[in-house]
What does this fold into?
Amino acid sequence: MRHFQPKRPFALLTAGLLVLAACGDSAMEPHDHDDEEDHAEEVEGVILSLSGQNIAAYNGDTGQWTGELEVEPGEETAHIQVMFVDHNAQAVTLGSDFYLMVEVEDESVAEFEQDTPGEFGGHLHGVAEGDTDVTFSLMHGAVGSGHADFVTAPLHVHVHEH
It folds into this structure.
């Protein structure tokens, strides 16, 4: 009489399934609507305004900007307000655990300075004549250590004498 010995692949499969089951059912539970709001699901675009005038807008559906940023070398713009908007271009109310991160591709051409780290705005400084791109990210978490919930395509920046 032979003893039954399970095949090794079957044993490994069973062990793997047990490990996955032990990890919990959180992946199987429906998402709480409040959790979705915590991750800015309704954000679909960005509007930049300078002195009350909209100067550039980003459409998240198309991934396209309308408008550009301009500044002269050695100068800085007035405060640029960065507003994250829904599909109707209405401002999205964001909790205190959101902040703005701005990345300038070439900081030898331009810099974006926020008066307070993470604030939804700042000043564009023209460092030297040239062109570069700026990307705006809606971050979730503590300033400096969060993760991006929404990132724009790069926006073109001109630094030229007028």
About this structure: Residues 1-37 have pLDDT under 50 and may be disordered. The chain has two helices and eleven strands.
